[in-house]
Amino acid sequence: MALGLHSSRRNFLVGAGRFAGAAAAVRLMPGSAFAAEPGGAYCPPPSAWSDLAKAVKGGVLRPEDPFFADVCRPNNLRYGATLPAGIARCASAADVQACIQWVKQQAMPFAVRSGGHSYAGFSTTPGLLIDMTRMAGAELLPGKDGLVKVLGGTLNSAVYKQMERLGRTITHGRCDSVGAAGFLLGGGIGFNMRKYGMASDLLHATELVTADGSHVKADADTHSALYWACRGGGGGNFGINTSFTLETRPAEAVTVFNLTWTDKLPTVLKLLLTELAAAPDDFGSKINVTIPSRQEQCDKVPVSVSILGQLHRSNATLKEIFKSTWEWIDWSKSQVKENIPYWEGQDFLTETTFPYYYQEKSSYMRAADIGDEAIAAMFDWAAKMPATSMPVAFKFFQVGGAINRVGPTETAYVHRGYDWLFSVEANWWRPTDSALLIEQALEWQQRFYDDVNRRTRAQGAFQNFPDPSLADWQRAYYGENLAKLAEVKKAVDPAMLFTFAQAIRPA
C-alpha cells in the first residue's frame, strides 16, 4: 500500500497498491460440490468458466491463454508460485458484482488486485484473481470544487497524468505501477502528507461492491461507518472498491532534492531525525540508510545515508532546514532542483520498480525517543547483515504535520502523533541467494526490528506495509480503532466472505 529497487523501493507508495493491491479470499461453503480437490486445486466445470466469461465483459483469462503469467505476476515474487485458476479482468462495477456472485456459487477462493504490490502476497490466490486494472481512469467532477473521481483499478501513472493535465495534486507516492485502491484504503503516504494529510484524509467518498453483491456509495452522510473504515482500514476487508472521490490541491512549484552523506553517519542520522522533525509542513522527506549487496561489499562500497524529498514554497530554505548536517553533504552524489513545476519535480522523484523478493517490517517513532544508543545499535545491526545479492535499507518516512492534526479515531488510520515511520527491509533474489541465506537475512531483520523498537519505544505498524511475520498485527495496524472496524465488518460482511491471513474479523 498504494501513488515504489535497489535499496530505496517501496517508498512513498500511493500504494494498493500502496496508491497497493487490495486482496481478499472467500471461505469455502460447507457441503459445496466444488470444494478443493485433493492437493488444493479448485475445479469448477468448464461450463462454470464459460458462464463467468459471459458475465464479465472485460474478459476472463485461463492458464493456457497468452499473457496469463504476465497478468498474474505479483510485484513480490516471494508469492509468485501461487497461480490463480483464472483471472477476471473487470471493466465495470457490474463485472465485479458478477465475480462476487460466481465465487459464492462455486465456493471459489479469490483475491482482488490493482497494482499487485501487496507486500505479504494478499493479492495472490489459487482461485479467481479479480483484476481491476481495466477499470481505470480519473476525471474532474464538474462543479465540485476540485474533487476528482479515480476508478478502482487505476495505477499511479494514470493518476499522475490526469492530475498534471488538471494542474492539481493529492498526497501520492512515487512508484508509478502501484494501484490506487490499496494505497488509499490503507492510509497512503507521500511527500505531501505533512502538508495535506494522509491520502485517506483527502477521501470524500468511495463506491464499493459488498459481500451481498450490492454496489453502494459511502461518504460522510451515507454508509458513514463504512466510509470511516475505508479511510485507513486496509484493502480487502469490507468489499471491492470501484471508485474513490478525492479532494485535490493546486499543483505549485517545488524544490526537490536527493542528498547523500558518506561520513559521520551515526551523527548525521541522529541530527536528521532530530532537526527535521521541526521542519515546516511544506517539507517532506524519506531518509535511507543503505546497506550494500554482497558484491558491492566485495567492491568496498560503504554504507551511506541519503535523503530524498521536496519543499513547497516556504519561508525556510533547505540550508536552514538541514541546519548542522548541510555542511557535511557529499555534493558529488547529491542534487537539488529549485522551484521547478510540480509535476516536473515528481518526475525527478518517481521510482520505477520491478518484481523481486522481499519482506518489510515497520513501526512508528517519535524523534525525542531516538537516542544515541538506538542510533549506534542501528549501525551495529547494519554491520551484521547477512549480505544477499541485493542491497537493503532501513528507512524513515517523515510523518507529522497535517497528519497529527487529525485525531486517531476520526478516521480508521490510527497512527497519529509520530514524527517518523520506520521500516527495515530484507531483499533477495532466487536462485542466486540460498534458502539458508534468506532464512538468516529474515532472522537478522526480525532481531534488528525488535531491538530498535525496544530502544526507541516504537509502536504500531503501517497497514500498507503488510508483514506476514508480524505478531499481534491487529493491534499494530489498527490500535484503538480495531473494535469499531470489527463492528463495521460485522455489519457489511458477517460471514467473512472477504478474508485473508490478516483480514479484520467481524465483532
UniProtKB/TrEMBL annotation:
Official protein name in the record: FAD-linked oxidase
UniProt source species: Azospirillum humicireducens
Cofactor: FAD
Occurrences of domain FAD-binding PCMH-type (ranges): 80-251
Source lineage: Bacteria, Pseudomonadati, Pseudomonadota, Alphaproteobacteria, Rhodospirillales
SUPFAM superfamilies, alphabetized: FAD-binding/transporter-associated domain-like
A single GO molecular function term of this UniProt record: FAD binding
Keywords annotated in UniProt: FAD, Flavoprotein, Oxidoreductase, Plasmid, Signal
Classification via PROSITE patterns: FAD_PCMH, TAT
